[in-house]
Hints:
The structure is a single chain. Strands 2, 3, 4, 7, 8 and 9 form a 6-stranded parallel sheet that branches. The radius of gyration is 31 Å and the shape is elongated. It is of the alpha/beta class and 467 residues long. Helices cover 49% and strands 15% of the residues. The protein has 2 domains: 31-238, Alpha-Beta Barrel (TIM Barrel), CATH 3.20.20; 243-458, no CATH class. The relative contact order is 0.10. Mean pLDDT is 80; it is low at 1-15, 400-408, 430-442 and 447-467. Pfam families: Polysacc_deac_1, YkoP. It comes from Paenibacillus selenitireducens. InterPro entries: Glyco_hydro/deAcase_b/a-brl, NODB_dom, Polysacc_deacetylase_ArnD, YkoP-like_dom. Residues 38-224 form the NodB homology domain.
Amino acid sequence: MENLVLWCFYILTFYAFLPGVFSRIFGFRVFKRGQSEREICLTFDDGPDAHYTEELLDLLKRFDAKATFFVVGVNAEKNPAVIKRIHDEGHLIGIHNYVHKSNWFMRPGTVRKQIKKTTDIIHHITGSKTIYYRPPWGIVNLFDFGNLGHIQIILWSAMFGDWRKRVGVDRLERRLMRKLRPGEVLLLHDCGTTFGADPEAPGNMLVALERYMKAAEAKDYQFVRVDEMMKTTDRFKSKQLSLGKKALVKAWLVWEQCFHVLFNLKKTADPDPTFHYRVTTFHGESITMQDGNVLHKGDQVMEIHFDNQKLFDMGMNSRSTVHIAIQLIRGVEKALPYFAEEIVKNPQLSNVKALYGVSMIHRGADKLGFSVHDLPKGLFATLTQMYLKILLSVIHPKGKSRVKDRSTALVPKSIVLSAELLKKRYDVGTHIQNGKEVEEVLQEKQVLKMAVEQTYSNTPNTPSATP
Length: 467
């Protein structure tokens, strides 16, 4: 008898208790808290209810809020009009089993049937299927982790006992206010007919929730669906730096400061410069530029270098490589008039033949007046490619994985813009002297900007810049 009891204890521990501990404490295979600067996630269990869910939807609409409803299948069958309204008003619908019964007391096959039946009901009413699942009481069994296929288990970061009427509005409000911060996934109940709940408790929840939403609105917080919170969390995590990467970024920025001192880099009159430059001698083979002028070995060039702090900030705040590319192109476009002004007004630059740089921005550069050329094969091209790969792994939101995925596209090239074309196209004073109106100049630049943005929006590319 003792052995039987002991074996029952072991089985229950591994089947039910340990999976619950791992999912709740460590978040294993579940989503229970987000990372965000402004978003909060409201989730509601046990509904829909013909009365309270309708009132809740009215409240959410007043605040332009989106929420997630984990519905019990049998309740969804009874209230198809409410389910349809939830869906039509842009909220997310998830599964809360067909009946409100713990997974601890069901076989794995039974859990699957509960989920499938509820999914089919939701699909029949809304025309859409769902992959989001919250087990009743948040209790999972051992087989739920690998038995539910593509289903995403959603738990919560805070619950408030709102299914009990005796908690009262004021106490419930105080509990909610303690969780008034971004990233929270709040568990509330819009139906009081399940076992252990009070039928009138959702009325208290609605009053307390309205006060909570007013306070959130005052802080400019937003209420989003759980799938949106998951996407925001992924983006947020991609921007967090490990200790190693922080050290690499710090060393990289220190190197930039040393580079500026060693090579005497200068700024233009731009109050917020994106580029620095130095005047140097061109040592490559002769290059025919876009306006027909030829850059020869020994000519003076204005060598441009991207501000690494700005480049890093762009990478950390960008959603993708294309987004970085568009920002880089805009930065170049903003800087070119200042370079033109610098060449016109600075007598020390009177012999500069061209603007020169090494970059991975290939597409669209010609629309800005640059001619694009392959670097001569050799040590410089190899080292430049290695450096730019490291650079991209530091600044890009996806880091090394992006370098691996786009390794064949990481080809640095020289970009050259004739000084004469630079002054002709970008120096407004020169245009006025030639009889052109400022409005025409600005119009040409706007067309150029649209063309460049269209190029990068339609074609993924991997940009970079010299240090």
